[in-house]
Each structure stands twice: as structure tokens, then as C-alpha cells.
Amino acid sequence: MKNIFLILLCVLSFIGCKQDKQNVPKYSDKYELTSDKPIDSVLRQELEQIVVKDQTLRLLLPNVEEKFGKGSSEENYIWSLIHREDSICLVKTLRILEEYGWIGKSRVGDKANQGLWLVIQHADIATQETYLPLLRKSVEMGESEGWHLAFLEDRILMRNKKNQIYGSQTIWDKEIGKLRIYPIDDVENVNKRREQIGLEPIEEYAKTNGYFFDQKR
Question: Around Cβ 99, how many Cβ atoms within 10 Å?
């Protein structure tokens, strides 16, 4: 399941997030990120359903592109549905974050916890920057996966036109007609950083997903 998310997130990252900026509420220190609370089955079910809504249409994209072509009306239509669903999921997720904070794995399980990250990963940059500290704290406590943080940090950097850290994000290169890995800061040591969060070497990552990777770019 993790690999599916990684592939989808990077294959689609060059298109960007087309949502309008939300009125992002400012979170407070009242949030409890502790892991000593019992499993919350209601929140778990709600967040797992958000994962389904976030991913289902995205899973259709490769087949739509293969059948109708990149940039086709059919593909654009799927994207319009995705952006609409993303907006709905974001409203629900922001409500959860404001009420409960970044809910950890021990309270809602891996899939539901990942749902928070998926929605924020697909949100506007103002929302991403607002909730990045909460995700970072959750990772430090062992309540979220390190690669969630890596992907979000890389995407924020890319959208701010800065080099990424872990090499998780890609961009469409018209000259070569394929996705290439967005420039990486201190690329010589990127595999050390990736290993620390449980990701494969950048060369293997690029080869598996068909990405163009050139350390000079």
C-alpha cells in the first residue's frame, strides 16, 4: 500500500494543487499528540473513508491517460473531480485537526493516520506550511511515518522554488517527455537522508518509477 501512495504522489506532483487557498485556522498549543489514549473507532472510520475518497480517482488516472492520452478531455475531467473531492476532504480534515490535532497511529491506526497526511499533501501551500509543525512533532513522537514528513517538506520546498531534501518530488520535463526528479539540495548525501527515513536509494526509486534522474540538474 505504501508503494502505491509513493508512486501516485510523485507521478502526479508535477501537475500541482489547483485548489484555492483556504482560510487556514491557526492551531494552538492545546493539541495533545500523546499516544496514551484508547483507539478512537469513529475517527478511524472517518479518516479511512477520507483515504478512499482521496485515492480512488487518482488510481484511475494511469488508465485514463493510457487510453485517451495525456492532456485529453477525459483526463482533465478526472482531474476536475479530484480537485472537487480534495476540497471536500480538506474541509473535513481541517475540522479534525483543529479539534484533535495530528492524531497518531496508536489512536487511529496506520491508514487513518496516513489519511491526514494525504489530504494536507494535496492541499494549498498555506495549509501545508501551517500544519507541517504538527506532522513534524507527530513523527518525533513515533506517531507518524518519517517519509510522510519527507514528502511534505519536499513538496513545500518545490512549491517555493527551492531544492528539495529527499528527492521525493518530480516535475514534467518537456524536453525529454517524461518526469524527472526535481533538483535536490546536497544531492551527494541524499541516499543517507533517505535511508534514515526508510526510503530506497534515489537511483532505485527513479528506475522503479521510470523517472529521469540527473545529479547535475
Answer: 11
